[in-house]
Write a structure and sequence with these properties.
about 300 residues; hpI Integrase, Chain A; three-stranded antiparallel sheet
Length: about 300
């Protein structure tokens, strides 16, 4: 059966033929790759099962309530929210195809929202893990001295990897213990660093950078050739030292940033101060760290308070 045969109006009983036509449409009209076509057609398949289960014969009978019921059914039978959201997106594409071919008049897929996934808390390391990370680089090699300075600065200031990579020597004021950071959207902010970070950066500048930097090179962190260290190289060295320190395999520069924010809040810092230091435009973005801090406080309370586990 072809789309021409179905132009008078699609029937749910022709489900398999419709899905085949949808696959052909994605292949020849949209020029999608075979794997993408398979993903789309696989995603819409459960909708046919649901319609049959509900004894729905006509697409014109399908409204937003039925589609919402379908999404609820998917969750009930074990699909995770991300999968359900993807299936809704594929269903919208399926309806777009059917409307383009004149097979349906009614389409309420855009009136239904995908299920919201729970906010995933960013990974963090405890203070002991961060300490192990900072001590992982060798103090006897030029590379180790440079890398210790990068790690100390990243944790002291909560820097993104992109912010570390674009940092110039002129952006740091070691006497005032301040760093001018160029963040997202080329927005500048000033953050501060502690004594260990100042010591590590000073050691790097005096012992390592001075020997490899060309006179016109402004970049703070350099590779062996005397040019600016790339984001990728910074990410790789963080992964390397995280492995040495025994931290999680998914540890990254962003984990250092998350840990910086959480440790500040655990230590009593005001949320708006942390927001400024991170360079967040909105306090809502920083708010997620309060959940982590609260979780840490709860864990500490339950393990330490003498009456935390008593019934009465």
């Amino acid at each position: 059966m072809t789309a021409v045969d179905l132009v008078a109006g699609a029937s749910v009983h022709e489900w398999e033929e419709l899905v085949d036509e949808f696959g052909d449409y994605l292949t020849y009209n949209r020029q999608f790759a075979p794997l993408t076509v398979r993903n789309y057609t696989t995603d819409v398949a459960p909708f046919g099962d649901y319609l049959e289960k509900r004894c729905i014969d006509s697409f014109e009978d399908i409204d937003r309530l039925i589609i919402r019921g379908y999404l609820a059914w998917l969750l009930e039978i074990g699909y995770v929210k991300a999968s359900v959201s993807r299936k809704l997106s594929s269903l919208r594409s399926f309806y777009a195809f059917m409307k383009e071919r004149g097979l349906v008049q009614r389409d309420e897929t855009d009136l239904v929202s995908a299920p919201k996934s729970a906010s995933k808390l960013p990974p963090i390391a405890n203070e002991g893990g961060i300490q192990a990370l900072l001590e992982a680089p060798s103090a006897t090699t030029d590379t180790g001295v440079r890398d210790r300075a990068i790690l100390e600065l990243a944790y002291a200031c909560g820097l993104r990897v992109s912010e570390i990579a674009v940092l110039d020597v002129g952006d740091t004021d070691l006497e005032q213990r301040q760093v001018r950071v160029t963040g997202k959207g080329s927005k500048d902010r000033v953050t501060v660093m502690g004594v260990p970070a100042v010591a590590a950066v000073t050691r790097y500048l005096d012992r390592v950078r001075v020997g490899i930097a060309k006179e016109s090179q402004p970049a703070m962190f350099l590779n062996r050739g005397g040019t600016r260290l790339s984001q990728r190289s910074i990410q790789k060295l963080v992964k390397k030292y995280a492995l040495i320190a025994g931290l999680d395999l998914d540890f990254s520069t962003h984990t250092i940033r998350h840990s910086f924010a959480t440790h500040l809040l655990d230590g009593g810092a005001d949320l708006r101060v942390v927001q400024e230091l991170l360079g967040h435009a909105s306090p809502q973005t920083t708010q997620i760290y309060t959940h982590i801090s609260t979780a840490s406080a709860r864990k500490a309370y339950l393990s330490a308070h003498p009456r935390a586990k008593r019934d009465g």
